[in-house]
Design brief:
alpha/beta; Spore Coat Polysaccharide Biosynthesis Protein SpsA, Chain A; seven-stranded mixed β-sheet; globular
């Protein structure tokens, strides 16, 4: 009976943590809806006046980006801003032949009169954070705009972001990501679905109430003085953007989030690229929780509610670990429920946590219908997309849980960049991309075993108990079977 009690206890704690996160998301939804009721006014620079047009440095941190460098540079030089007030730094840590081709492109742009510099380091110490920090030393701009290699800002991007820095308390202006290849595949659709929720519900929901948000590593602008005041870029976590964001806000710098300013970008189309990106984001989130938790709790300038939202924000990635725990233990729980009659009432009470899924469903629906409409056809599409997203997200839970555990336990690892593909249309291919990993992770094998485990869970629904089975968890196990099956077979087929 001791083992059964331990299983019930661990299962219950994980469910409670997921429910707390769902309640936080619901609170962010209320914040989001209320944020659109009033018209916020704030001081802005008048960029038609030369004395109010500040000098800006655009930083482009790149590493082995042979497929997208030409597209990136051609797009960046189209940005409409006075040439005498703008410089571009290509922070190139590349180790392949892209260095030479990038150099040729930059020299051609220099001849056209653009103030663009090709900056290379002798080593990749600190990875992206190290490159940004080194570029900052020689940056002439008072404001630093940062774009990853797969981002394609519109020509008026600086004119829509820089004016907000007239408020001297603002340290960062962050814009919303959009996706040029959203409909390329199921994988890109569910990535876009998740990111859309982050860039609407979460960023607006937190920012509108003065809670901490994060610079998203790209498609935003920093006040140079804010970077320096917060302690500059540090490379001791895999998400240097989240790290510096928290250090800046703990020093009372304000962040301005612009939902209405979209910055198009390319989503990873290969599952191996998505896996490496997910691993970095989730491990970095856990690392930052360990780094920032006590600083947030000890701060005298933060409200209790802001502290709670901050801790849950830093624990975002840890939800994958709770999901994995609930998933794996759900099958033993099915047998325990049907073995011990006196515990049945407890299980009916615990089914209350189906509310977590309902809350997520409602929150994401509000985000989805804003872009896609609220008609019946839109809702039916949403239902299919939501459960596809939910299933595949659970299918990634083993992979992401390993990342989270490494982050919490302090295991160090290199910054593994996400390969870019230059995918613009549905017919564009990617399998010849030279940067894709050719080996299959051992984790993929375990994902295949978990697929079979949850198939056993579905089978168990027919045989447990003496009342003709128990199908309460059957939909959950079906989603897990499909999610792990998708991740497993997609990971295998991407190597063929």
């Amino acid at each position: 009976m001791l083992l059964e009690i331990i299983i019930i206890l661990v299962y219950s704690i994980a469910l409670i943590l997921i429910f707390m996160y769902a309640l936080a998301q619901l609170n962010l939804l209320f914040n989001y809806l209320n944020s659109h009721k009033g018209n916020e006014t704030c001081p802005k620079f008048n960029l038609s006046k030369e004395n109010e047009t500040p000098f800006v440095t655009i930083q482009l941190p790149v590493f082995n980006e042979i497929y997208v460098m030409e597209r990136l540079l051609k797009n960046i030089v189209l940005i409409d801003y006075p040439k005498d007030k703008l410089e571009i730094q290509v922070l190139d840590d590349s180790t392949d032949e892209s260095v030479e081709s990038t150099s040729i492109l930059i020299k051609a742009l220099q001849k056209e009169g653009f103030d663009i510099h090709h900056i290379q380091r002798e080593n990749r110490e600190g990875f992206k954070a190290g490159a940004l920090k080194e570029g900052l030393v020689i940056a002439n701009g008072e404001y630093i705009a940062i774009f990853d290699a797969d981002f394609l800002p519109e020509s008026d991007w600086l004119k829509r972001t820089i004016p907000f820095f007239k408020d001297e308390d603002i340290g960062v202006v962050q814009t919303r990501w959009s996706h040029i290849n959203r409909n390329y595949s199921i994988l890109t659709k569910i990535q876009a679905f998740a990111l859309d929720a982050h860039f609407t519900l979460e960023q607006v929901g937190r920012n509108s109430k003065g809670h901490f948000i994060n610079f998203n590593g790209t498609a935003g602008v920093w006040r140079k003085a804010c970077i320096i005041d917060a302690g500059n870029w540090e490379g001791d976590t895999l998400t240097e953007d989240l790290d510096l964001s928290y250090r800046a806000q703990l020093k009372d710098w304000k962040f301005k989030y612009l939902e209405e300013v979209e910055t198009p970008a390319e989503l990873p189309v290969a599952i191996s690229a998505a896996r490496s990106q997910q691993f970095r984001w989730n491990k970095g989130g856990a690392e930052n929780f360990q780094k920032m938790m006590w600083r947030v709790l000890k701060s005298n300038n933060l409200s209790f509610k802001t502290k709670i939202h901050s801790l849950l924000h830093l624990l975002n990635s840890t939800m994958f670990l709770n999901i994995l725990i609930v998933s794996v233990l759900s099958i033993p729980m099915l047998y325990i429920k049907n073995e011990y009659e006196h515990l049945k009432m407890y299980f009916y009470v615990m089914s209350f946590f189906v509310l977590s899924t309902i809350i997520f469903f409602i929150c994401y629906w509000f985000m989805y219908k804003k872009s896609n409409g609220s008609g019946i056809k839109s809702f039916i599409k949403y239902v299919g997309l939501f459960f596809t997203f939910f299933s595949i997200a659970m299918g990634f839970s083993l992979h992401n849980s390993i990342a989270v555990l490494e982050g919490h336990f302090g295991k160090r690892s290199d910054f593994v960049r996400t390969p870019k593909f230059n995918i613009n249309t549905l017919s564009d291919g990617w399998k010849k991309n030279k940067y894709l990993k050719k080996n299959i992770s051992v984790n993929v094998i375990f994902e295949g075993l978990l697929m079979l485990y949850f198939a056993f869970g579905m089978y168990s629904a027919f045989i447990v108990g003496d009342q003709g089975g128990d199908f309460g968890l059957f939909p959950f196990h079906l989603m897990l079977f499909l999610g792990f099956g998708f991740v497993f077979f997609k990971s295998l087929s991407s190597k063929i």
